[in-house]
């Protein structure tokens, strides 16, 4: 089974976190699910470089990658994903959606109200935990 390395940004601004919704896709298990913006790491790129590039491409937003949060190892029916997640900050919250269906900014305690991609659930659990 194929393993892909994906980076994802937990972008914080004024106490809220940016959540984005994927469009309709070939895999039902991620189609229209909520996720943290990001994408696949390309050859020769660091995770931080890949993340800044993906967020510029997808959202037209320049972020600061502040701190590594966690890596999730999740197996979907057709592939295995290593999801490397970073805490990031944004200078403002103006974004332009170029790929996603929808977005919202939520306070951490409300993150678990969305229908997240399965790989993201441990990240959401960490963010909503009192210890975070
Ligand atoms: N970006 C992102 N992808 C995630 C998350 N959780 C998760 O399961 N994924 C999965 O990881 C894969 C990432 O692919 P992507 O489509 O975002 O990456 P990309 O922009 O580089 O892809 P492409 O250029 O090949 O279209 C997708 O299958 C997506 O469903 C997440 O929080 N963020």
UniProtKB/TrEMBL annotation:
Domain of life: Bacteria
Catalytic activity line of the entry: 8-oxo-GTP + H2O = 8-oxo-GMP + diphosphate + H(+); 8-oxo-dGTP + H2O = 8-oxo-dGMP + diphosphate + H(+)
Nudix hydrolase domain mapped to chain residues: 1-129
PROSITE patterns according to UniProt: NUDIX, NUDIX_BOX
InterPro entries attached to this UniProt entry: MutT-like, Nudix_hydrolase, NUDIX_hydrolase-like_dom_sf, NUDIX_hydrolase_CS, NUDIX_hydrolase_dom
EC number: 3.6.1.55
Pfam families: NUDIX (PF00293)
EC main group: hydrolase
Keywords tagged on the record: DNA damage, DNA repair, DNA replication, Hydrolase, Magnesium, Metal-binding, Mutator protein
Cofactor: Mg(2+)
Molecular functions (GO terms): 8-oxo-7,8-dihydrodeoxyguanosine triphosphate pyrophosphatase activity
Xref: SUPFAM superfamilies: Nudix (SSF55811)
Signal peptide start and end residues: none
Family per record: Belongs to the Nudix hydrolase family.
Protein name as annotated: 8-oxo-dGTP diphosphatase
Originating species: Neolewinella antarctica
